[in-house]
Design a protein that fits this description.
single chain; 375 residues; alpha+beta; Nucleotidyltransferase, domain 5; Actin, Chain A, domain 4; 3 domains; globular
Amino acid sequence: MSNVIGIDLGTTNSCVATIENGEAVVITNAEGARTTPSVVAFAKDGGERLVGVTAKRQAVTNPDRTMVSVKRHMGTDWSTGVDDASYTPQEVSAFILQKLKADAEAYLGHDVTKAVITCPAYFTDAQRKATRDAGRIAGLEVLRIINEPTAAALAYGVDKDVDQTILVYDLGGGTFDVSVLEIYDVDGQPQIEVKATAGNNLLGGDDFDELIIEWLLGEFKKSTGIDLSGDSQAMTRLKEAAEKAKIELSGTQQTQISLPFITMRDGSPEHLDMSLARSTFEQLTAGLVEKTMAPTRQAIKDAGMKAGEIDKIILVGGSTRIPAVQEAIEKETGKSPYKGINPDEAVALGAALQAGIIAGDQGVSDVLLLDVTPL
């Protein structure tokens, strides 16, 4: 059993992995899930701190004391107040890391003090330092901060013996990165070299949700004349429903959004009941999908390559399950994406492998990572 862990600290979900018998494995959390929502809340009565799925579940009834998507504020002077205390993004992230650390300790049966944490390739120095600080506050010695696309490439390429060029397209809940990497062998030692990276720190699944929320607000106002945008409880319910609709539309052509008792008018309740077709969703979000293509082209160009020279396309992040995203990347590169890795878990697995390499764990094949830092 390893005493180091790899953590994918995500905008909407986080994941933790470790090394077992030379293989990276995802650690299930106390609730039995393989990923943990990156949500922190303080209960109304007594202010008990909730992290993960318990915090996410009560967000509708307690929106003002629930913190979501704080990763977008990393490295800034943003802070949020609850009761008399104020919390920085590092402190909120540390609460999430503490839970992941506790889940890992419960699984491994011993204390965990060292971790490799990932961050978007396009994070600045200040944002990386904030991520490192969050680890320190959570009681972890951060061995290294590595880029998410690089971690995903490590999870994919650690056992590949064929020289190849891969493109990692990472569209998560709040950030977007694309990297072009080369995997090759030097004197029997595998090397993964990042040739180019590009991205957008403020583009992700949250933005797709926002567009569905705007559409719902507009349609509801058209049919009832009521504007829900000032009602924080209704907005939290809409956000939850929008995320659910987006996920459902990855598998079906149409989804029903039903929110009974969304508001009151003249003492009688109003209900929201609409159907959203995948074609409408794709029209709404076409601009966002196109926004990811410019950095993709840039990364391929910076690597000194043409789209046709890339051997594999690896999709990372839950938002890459959106069919329009997969179609766009396939059209751009002329290749269908590789389906052999789990987009939610690849980054954490790669981080665990890097942690294992640094700690010198038995059975982990040593891979040399050559990365770039975007300035």
